[in-house]
Write a structure and sequence with these properties.
Blueprint lengths: L1 H22 L6 H10 L31 E11 L2 H14 L3 E10 L9 E11 L3 H11 L1 E11 L1 H27 L3 H33 E10 L11 H29 L1 H48 L1
Parallel strand pairs: 1-5
Antiparallel strand pairs: 1-4, 2-3, 3-5
Length: 320
């Protein structure tokens, strides 16, 4: 009985320590964060199943405005290219060079009909790039194609990430304490109670570690969404003057007329059998029907004339 009271008292003290630790205010400064990493090195469970907090990433060592912070950087770009296959190859090579990877890539054909010299294509590509190489990758995309739209997003998750670390530290401390108490427990009831709590704490630790790994992945690798469009002419990157716009539009109109003429010739020659068949049904078939009708009428008139002639001869003979 006395030992059970000691166990219950120890659990109560542990719970009070955890509550006081959770209610204590957290310093989110970079210095405090670095210290927290140093003090949490020995907080893993005795059985070695839990991971230690991850060290400061390389992105935090760059000395920029994000140093010491946990930030998620993402970008979206809309790009035009005259050479679709070359652009895709260049972006793929640059991604591999920087240590990133293509998460998804969907290519679609866009057929604009006879007035397009080719079946233009488009692609929706999602690229994961190491965060410290994001600016280099964006510059490479800008150099490989014509970027018509660009947006970047920075999400500072330092507070949330530090809360997760603090919660993990408290749970790991509780887990170690419960293991120690379990090794000293004697009654079956105390053993069951401690094991139930250990299971619950272990589940919480694994849940928070999963969240931490998810944040680590999003922090270490930036996501870049590329909307790639194959074009015959790139959009003007800067605002044009009056004369420049007139010259460009005249040139584009002349090119459109020439492309349209070429497309018409290709269509006419390529579809000449179809055209001949259509003309036959439109003009030839009715003409044949008219000729058949005229011939039938002439034949009928000739037969009637022959009958009248025979009748006249017969009448003349009878009159004699």
């Amino acid at each position: 009985m006395k030992k059970r009271l000691l166990i219950i008292g120890a659990l109560l003290i542990t719970a009070m320590l955890l509550l006081s630790g959770c209610s204590k205010s957290i310093d989110y400064s970079p210095e405090a964060k670095t210290d927290s990493y140093a003090h949490q090195g020995g907080l893993s469970g005795n059985d070695g199943i839990f991971e230690k907090p991850s060290p400061v990433s390389d992105a935090d060592k760059t000395g920029d405005i994000f140093a010491g912070r946990k930030v998620i950087r993402n970008a979206s770009l809309t790009v035009e290219t005259l050479e679709f296959d070359r652009f895709i190859a260049d972006i793929t090579n640059k991604t591999n060079e920087l240590g990133g990877y293509i998460q998804s890539n969907e290519i679609r054909a866009r057929n604009y009909g006879y007035y397009s010299k080719t079946d233009l294509r488009s692609a929706e590509t999602v690229v994961r790039i190491p965060a410290d190489k994001l600016d280099e990758f964006l510059a490479a995309v800008d150099g490989a194609g014509n970027v018509t739209a660009r947006s970047e997003n920075v999400d500072d998750v330092t507070e949330t990430y530090t809360d997760i670390e603090a919660r993990l530290a408290s749970l790991r401390t509780e887990y170690d304490t419960l293991l120690e108490l379990l090794s000293k427990a004697e009654s079956l009831e105390d053993i069951i109670t401690l094991q139930d709590r250990l299971t619950s704490v272990r589940y919480e630790i694994e849940s928070y570690e999963g969240k931490q790994r998810l944040y680590d992945n999003r922090i270490e690798f930036s996501t870049v969404n590329l909307a790639i469009t194959e074009v015959e002419r790139e959009t003007a990157p800067v605002k044009e003057g009056f004369g420049q716009e007139i010259s460009r539009r005249f040139k584009e109109s002349a090119e459109d007329v020439w492309e349209g003429f070429k497309a018409f010739i290709i269509w006419f020659i390529g579809d000449l059998p179809k055209i001949a068949l259509v003309l036959f049904f439109i003009a030839g078939l009715p003409l044949i029907i008219v000729l058949i009708i005229v011939k039938s009428v002439k034949r009928a008139n000739r037969k009637r004339a022959e009958k009248r002639a025979k009748l006249a001869e017969k009448t003349a003979e009878q009159a004699k």
